[in-house]
């Protein structure tokens, strides 16, 4: 073994060893995805912050299956429902930022909730890195097939008379609730909001005529429309829905800039390493380019999102829905 007698050589050796020790320590602190070029080396968890069978769950399962094929690993869908999607979303915000836990976010979890909840445990912009805008869809304004209202003009006339009309939603502060409030501001008259714990319960009461109308996702109401149990009077987007092009938009009928859409976006925790994030983005892009995936998403009423700068899109959506939340007076503690 060589003996180092030079003080200079000894100091150089100590510095080298110290540098190696520090580098090793820092490397150990990095997420596994940043260290390993073979990401993903194990299954990925895609959290759905709503229950099984919901539109978010269906969309997530379509994407999970396709992404799993391109990533070479199983993408497991895990439902963590509750509190308007905040429980599952917060879980992902606090998960290790290693690329192995992602969330199927929605307009509710990553835009509306920011201003709806007095104390939101996560920040939809600062706590997440967007992966891909999966798609967007307008909601459809529906009434019972037996309703006397054939157009929005009929609905507005009824709202102008006492006792007015009522509208249902899947809960206070949801996109359906806020769309109803915006319609009320356009048509005037008396429109009373009736929040439900579940959207399916609200749809049932609209079909029976207990509540006059509601805005809801095409996937949930189109089967009832085709079965002759519901009638669609308008779409909430600026352009007609590709799932129901025969239904005129609300803007066509009442004018103004009535343009509210629900959307789905995949997110990872903010500090996820760039290599892992890029692989997830590439996988999502490949899935969305697949004719099979596009067909399945179209069947759910989803249209391709036009946004390219997803961070800017998210910030604009937070601001837009905050204005509606404020005007509606909706608030959740």
Radius of gyration: 25 Å
CATH class of the largest domain: Alpha Beta
CATH fold naming of the largest domain: D-Maltodextrin-Binding Protein, domain 2
- Count, helices: 13
- Bin the helical content: 40-55%
Low-confidence segments? 1-10, 12-35
Can you give me a brief rundown of this structure?
With 333 residues, this protein is of the alpha/beta class. The protein has 13 helices and 10 strands.
Give structural notes.
With 333 residues, the protein is an alpha/beta fold. Helix content is 45%, strand content 18%. The protein is built from 13 helices and ten strands. It has helices spanning 7-29, 32-35, 55-71, 86-93, 107-116, 152-159, 175-187, 199-208, 218-226, 250-254, 274-289, 291-299, 310-328, and strands at residues 44-48, 75-79, 101-106, 128-138, 140-144, 165-169, 191-195, 213-216, 230-235, 261-269. The radius of gyration is 25 Å and the shape is globular. The model is unreliable at 1-10 and 12-35 (pLDDT under 50).
Features of the shown structure:
five-stranded mixed sheet; D-Maltodextrin-Binding Protein, domain 2; 333 residues; 13 helices; LacI family transcriptional regulator; signal; 2 domains; alpha/beta; Bug_dom1; BUG
Topology:
Blueprint: H1 7-29, H2 32-35, E1 44-48, H3 55-71, E2 75-79, H4 86-93, E3 101-106, H5 107-116, E4 128-138, E5 140-144, H6 152-159, E6 165-169, H7 175-187, E7 191-195, H8 199-208, E8 213-216, H9 218-226, E9 230-235, H10 250-254, E10 261-269, H11 274-289, H12 291-299, H13 310-328
Parallel strand pairs: 1-2, 1-3, 6-7, 6-8
Antiparallel strand pairs: 3-10, 4-10, 5-8, 5-9
Helix pairs in contact: 3-11, 5-13
């Amino acid at each position: 073994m060589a003996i180092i007698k030079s003080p200079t050589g000894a100091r150089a050796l100590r510095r080298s060893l110290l540098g190696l020790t520090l580098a090793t320590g820092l490397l150990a602190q990095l997420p596994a995805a940043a260290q390993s070029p073979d990401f993903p080396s194990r299954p990925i968890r895609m959290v759905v912050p709503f229950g099984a069978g919901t539109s978010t769950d269906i969309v997530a399962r379509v994407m999970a299956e396709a992404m799993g094929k391109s990533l070479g690993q199983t993408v497991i869908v895990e439902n963590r429902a509750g509190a308007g999607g905040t429980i599952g979303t917060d879980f992902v915000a606090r998960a290790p930022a290693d690329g192995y836990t992602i969330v199927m976010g929605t307009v509710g979890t990553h835009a509306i909730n920011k201003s709806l909840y007095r104390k939101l445990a996560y920040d939809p912009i600062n706590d997440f890195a967007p992966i891909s805008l999966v798609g967007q869809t307008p909601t459809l304004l529906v009434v019972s097939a037996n309703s006397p209202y054939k157009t929005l003009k009929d609905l507005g006339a009824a709202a102008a008379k006492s006792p007015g009309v009522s509208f249902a939603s899947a809960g206070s502060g949801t996109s359906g609730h806020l769309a109803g409030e915006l319609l009320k501001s356009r048509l005037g008259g008396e429109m009373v909001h009736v929040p439900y714990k579940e959207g399916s319960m609200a749809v049932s009461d609209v079909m029976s005529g207990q509540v006059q109308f509601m805005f809801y996702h095409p996937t949930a109401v189109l089967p009832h429309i085709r079965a002759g149990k519901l009638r669609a009077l308008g779409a909430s987007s600026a352009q007609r829905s590709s799932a129901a092009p025969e239904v005129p938009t609300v803007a066509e009928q009442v004018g103004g800039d009535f343009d509210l859409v629900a959307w789905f976006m995949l997110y990872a925790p903010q500090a996820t390493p760039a290599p892992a994030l890029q692989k997830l983005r590439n996988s999502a892009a490949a899935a969305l380019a697949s004719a099979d995936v596009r067909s399945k998403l179209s069947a759910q009423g989803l249209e391709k999102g036009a946004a390219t700068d997803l961070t800017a899109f998210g910030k604009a959506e937070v601001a837009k829905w905050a204005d509606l939340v404020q005007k509606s007076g909706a608030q959740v503690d």
